[in-house]
Every structure is written in structure tokens, then in C-alpha cells.
Amino acid sequence: MEHLTGADLRSLAGARSFERGLGYVDAVSGIEVGDDWIRASVHGTERYEAELTLGGRRGPTGQCDCPYGQEGNFCKHLVALGLVVLTEGDGLAARRTAARERAREFDAWLSGLPREELIALVRDQVAEDPQLRRRLELRAANAQGDLAGIRSRIRELLDIGPYTQYGHVEYADARAYVDQAGQVVSAVRSLSASGRAADAMTLAREAIGLLAGQFDSVDDSDGWLGRVGADLADAHHEACRAARPDPEELAHWLVTHALDDAVDLTDIDPLDYEDLLGEGGMAALRRYAVDAWQAHRTGWAEKDLVQRLAKSGRDVDTVIAVHAADLVPSGHTHLLIARELDAASRSDEALEWAERGIRDVDDLTTVDTALVDYLADRHAREDRLLAAAALRRDHFAARRTLLAYRRLRAAARAVDRWPTERAAALDLLRADAEQRTAHGAPVLVDVLLDDGDGAAAWRAAADFGAYDHQWLALADQSRATRPSDALAVYRRLAAPLTREVGNDVYEQLVSLLLSIRDCHRHLESPDEFAAYVTELRSAQKRKRNLMRLMDEHGL
Q1: Which of 222, 227, 229, 230 minimizes the C-alpha distance to 174?
Q2: Bridge partner list, 165
Q3: Which sign, positive or negative, has the C-alpha torsion 145, 148, 153, 157?
């Protein structure tokens, strides 16, 4: 304990949790001290159990059953407990000595009890504590080799009945149920430790299925049940490692489990069993996965499993076959295939799939833009610049967006055809604007602004209309050259803001006022601006934050 420092606590917790922990020091109670650990309750909105381990080569570590602590973080409750350790110092050492003495005295008393009295004591405790009874019944069944008895006790432990209200375990009762369910993990591990790993493996699988069946009926907001599922998965893996089951049978169970809802509880990955399966078992694993996929080719879980197993075995053709069996109309699946083939250094086939993806799309407005980018980049890298420009032209004609315009501009400049392509593109956008299509006028204004053609952008906005943010961009871009036009825009945008409140609104308004002042400077009309500001201040004088902000900017 003497090696713990405040710097250790700050480093482990981070500044935020450390500062919050300072306020919980007085909430620490029920301190228990061991040789290299200290445990206590920390009361906040709820009571949590925190434990610091102070020995070990890696320095202090801690565990807490609060939600943040259960994610593996060094929480504010552990900080509070650590600060108590630093404060009490020698007093804790005295507690540890006293605890050791009490343990010795208790052990001596317990050892000296007559057999009949000891049995009576255990029976009394079992009668008062159902969880203790279940634990001891499990140990008895295990000691007697009673597999049926162990199975029965496991079913009892996983039964939500005693904790349910209207068929559901509410949040307030979930922790008690999870504590009981966690005893199943201990039972399975005890079987493995006693040389009955095959039985442990079987019961672990049964328990996983039973627990998964209860999952939707328990309010597991804090993820406690998920941790029991993960522990069961670990216990199953440990049992398999000891029992060395038939690889074919193990492969079949792993695939069945991976495609079952129970996998969400345990997160068992069949690839984690590769060393137990061996070459033959892995072949069986892939065969069972392919069979499942062929029976349900559009199933997400089936496709994901087959592809992951295929990738682990570098079986690119199977990965492609899975994608090819469920091609989507946008061409996205073609793109995935092309990328897989590129990764396998099969670039010619990748190009064929990408080109096929474009051909198979009936309407380029629905094509995956990433596929267009992929194919255009391939053309450009392999000096097919005209093909890249043609693809960008077709895509822009179908999807007239600012991004598609930019891509077309870059491709056309690479082949010295931008003036011609630009004129054709703008003709399409003007036709859209004249027909009042949804995006015609806004896109036309955007692309002209992006080209730096402010004069044409002003005309388009005046002829066809524009959004406020576009008018603002036009005004900002041409404040020095068209101050009168920009001034009209700024004042129009400022007017509705004067009827609103809030610091964000005031910041927007002041930004517009600064732009209005700049316009008047260019127009050499400072008196007009002064009159405008005076009138504005008079009307807005009740808005103290706005007045303060205007003062800060000299308005």
C-alpha cells in the first residue's frame, strides 16, 4: 500500500475521473483489507463495490461494478478508495493485521466445531440463503458425478421465474438474476477442473442456449447478462481445449451457433477454435458454412460467416461467389468484388467487374458513386484519360451535383477539354433551372461559385433564385467589387435575425453587421452605416448580450 501515490491515481483514472473522485472520498465505507488488496463500498446515486489491487509488477489496478468500471475503466469510485488508502496509511495496515487475526480466529473456531454442529450450521445457512444452497447443491452433484443433477441445477439457476414481473425481469431485479446465472459458469469450470471436460463442454452449450432464450426477457441495460454469456463462451472454449472433441462435430456446432441468435450473447468466433479444429476441422467448418449459405444466400449472417472463413483461408473465389450471388442494383457489390480482386493482385478481373457494374446499372442516377470513382481512377492510372473523362461526363449528366461537376472538371482538364465540357455541363444545369427542377438553380449557383465565376453566379441567382447561404457566399465573394449588391444581401439576411434571441443568433447578426460596415466603407458611406447601427441599437437595446457583443466589435 505504501507504493500507491496520488500520481498513480491520476494517471490511471485520467484528469476528469480523478477530479470527480475527490468528491466521493466521504462516500467510502465498509473497508476490507487484504495482503495486497483493499475493498469497500462507495455510495453515490447507487452503491458500488470497488476493489484496488496494490501489488503486482504492473502497479496498482482496480475493479468496480459501476457501469463505467465494468467497461474496464479506472472510475471515480476507485479514485475515492485510493484516496482513502493514501489518507489512512498506517491505519489500514493495522486493519489488515486485525483482519488476518480475525480470519485465524474464525478458522480455528470453525475447525474446532464438532461434525454435527458444523453440519447444523451449514444447514441453517443454506435454509437462509438460496444462492448458497444452489452453489452447494451444484458442488454435491459434481462430487457425486451426477450429470443429470448438475443439468437440473443449471436449469434452475437460469430460470427467470423467481425474478419476473409480468414475464419480464425488471432492471431492479436484473443484477440478482445475473449473480445467480453467473454460478453456472463456476459449475462448468468446476467440471473441467475435475477431469470431466466433455461434460463441461456439453453443459456449457446447453447453458448458452438457455441463457440466450431468456435474454429478451431481462432488462440488461448495464450489460451484466452479456458478461455472463462471454464467461460461458470462455468456459466452453476451455472445456473444448481440455476435452479435444471430434473436429467435425465441433465445426458443426460452431457454425450452428454462429448462425443462431445466441451468438449475440456470447460473441463466439469460430476462427478462435482454429487450433482445436486442425486442418480437417477447418475444412469441415467452411463446408458447413457454405452449405448454410447455399440454403439461404441472402442471409447476412450466412454471407458474413462464409466470407470471413474464406478470407482466413485466402479463398478469394468463394468471397467473390458470395458477393456475386446477391448483386445489388447500385453496383456496390461489383465494387466490393473489384476490391477483393485487387487485394489478390488480380487487377484485370477487378477492372472487368467494375466495368460490368457500370453496364449493369440501368440508371446512372442510382449508381454507387464510389464505383464511378474507382473505375475513373483506374482509367486515369492506366492512361485511359479519355475513358475517365467520358465516365465522369455520363455520371454528371445523370447526377447533376456539385461533387460530380468537380470530378468532371478534373477529368476534363486532364485531357484539355474543360471549356467544351464546362459549356455542355452548364447548359444542362441552366435547362434544369429553367424547368424549375428541385436542384437545378441551387446546383447552377454552386458550380459557378466553385468555378470562381461570380458574375455568372449573380446572374443565375437573380434569374432562377438561390438559397440564403448561397446569397451569403455570393456577397462574401464579391463584397469589394459589388458592394451595393452585397449590402442588399447582408441587410436582407440581418432583418429576420433582429426578431430572434439567443447568443448564436447574436453572433450571426454581428458577423453580418461587420460585413455591412465593410460594404459602406467600399461605398464611402460611413454616415449611412452609423445611422443604421444607431437605429438598430435603439430597437435592440433590451438584448444585453447583443449590445455587449456589438461593443466588443466596435459597432
Answers
A1: 222
A2: 168
A3: positive
Cell numbers standing for residue 361: 446499372
Measured N-to-C along each axis, helices 76-88 and 90-112 cross at an angle, to the nearest 10 degrees, of: 100
Separation CA 352–CA 354 (nearest Å): 5
The full DSSP string for 141-188 is HHHTT-HHHHHHHHHHHH--GGG-BTTBB-HHHHHHHHHHHHHHHHHH
- Rounded to whole angstroms, how far apart are CA atoms 533 and 531? 5
pTM over 0.70: no
**Nearest alpha-carbon partner for 162 in 179, 185, 150, 184:** 179
User: Contact at 8 Å (CB) between 280 and 288?
Assistant: no
- Averaged pLDDT of the chain: 89
3-state secondary structure 50-61: EEEECCCCCCCE
Q: How far is CA 16 from CA 9, 50, 87, 179, in A?
A: 11, 18, 21, 31
Q: What is the DSSP string of 88-132?
A: HTHHHHHHHHHHHHHHHHHHHHHHHS-HHHHHHHHHHHHHH-HHH
Report how far residue 470's alpha carbon sits from residue 151's, in angstroms, rounded to the nearest whole number.
Answer: 71
Instruction: Give the type of residue at 425.
Output: A
445: amino acid identity, one letter: V
Nearest to 474 by CA among 453, 500, 503, 496: 453
- Using CB atoms within 10 Å of the CB of residue 465, give its burial: 0 to 12 exposed, 13 to 18 middle, 19+ buried: middle
pLDDT per 10-residue tile (average), the chain, 555 residues? 77 90 90 84 85 72 84 88 84 72 81 86 80 72 76 89 86 84 87 89 94 89 85 93 94 95 89 94 94 91 93 92 92 95 95 94 89 96 95 94 95 96 94 77 92 91 90 92 94 93 92 95 94 93 92 91
Amino acid identity for residue 433 in this structure: A
The SS3 assignment for 384 reads coil
